[in-house]
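Subgroup meeting minutes
Present: P.N., E.W., G.H.
Scribe: E.W.

1. P.N. recapped why we're keeping a running log of single-chain structure predictions: easier to compare across weeks, and new members can see raw inputs and outputs side by side.
2. G.H. added today's entry (373 aa).
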Amino acid sequence: MKKVIMWVVVVVLVLWGGYALLKKDSTDSTQPIRIGVVGPFAGPSAAFGEFINRGIELAMADLPVEIRNRIVLVKEDDKCTGPDAISAVNKLIQLEKVKYMIGPLCTTAVVATEKLYEDNGVITLTAGVPSEQIANMGENHFTFSPEIKYMMEALSGYVRQNNFSRIGIIYVKDAFGEENYNKFKGNFESNGGTVVAAEGVEKGSMDLRTQILKVKAANPDSIFIALTGGSIVAALKEIETQGLGNVPKFAIHGFQTVDVLNGAKNEAEGVIYPYPSSNVSTKKIEDYAVKYFNKYAQPVELYSSNVYDSFNVLVNAIVKCGYDDNKCVQKNIKDTKNYDGVNGTVSLDTRGVATFQQILLKTVKDGKFQNLK
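Output recorded in log:
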């Protein structure tokens, strides 16, 4: 009996020691933290990839050196398309063996890669603003930006409250532009407004004369611009050329880029758009804006801020749980509440999607992006 007891004790000690060793290894403070980064780093949407790079660069600079030295970034270009995104994510998962990713940013790329993340148990924090479909993706998907529909509710509500009832819309014909268009239109019309013209344009299009003329012919009392990149500037200039410069103009959150200020200048003055942030400036918001401007000589924008917060939350969860404990990392991210982010205070809902205390409305005044008074 004594021998049996002794062997039981030995077995228990061995098992306990093995568990302790495994637990130690899972939170090894020297283990590399491999993070995949996927986004549009080339082609017509490369500016958005640069925003991803900036957010990560600033986040890395703010990490303790012992953590920063452990991080290995593996980047792949998705060119903002579904097929390229599938190829990029497949490579990161199958060849690079990453378990966590930042990106994609573009709606088409995010939707195309959802099954890859879920099937392989890889956690992703997307860099863009989610459509309704993206917001309701699987348990491995997180986003630190609010849904498009909430920003469109805020904007369309403001437009109607200010007695605009006949709006013309110009939107980019892709999943992102159509989501903004449909959510704005639905809310605007449910509040008694009428969309008198809706003209879609191809992504990257710079010749918008035909579409603007059709909007002009409908005699709108306001114009909503749901475009991206250089098309925003092209639309503003064509609107001015066609004698619609005095018609009040509204836009989506992507309006807030330095390219708009540099390219449109006077034409951008007075345009109103939604933005997920806080109307109360915090030290973190202010510090990030200063760091961003000092490094890039440009005003801060949404996507880099989103990536900065996402990257920090992800890294902190990995450090706490250990690189190999996906379930622990997943739970830590999902439990994010009242996070002091560089866009404001953020909590994640049960789907892993950011909720903000409010959606700001902003405008361009005296050549600067400012909160609407």
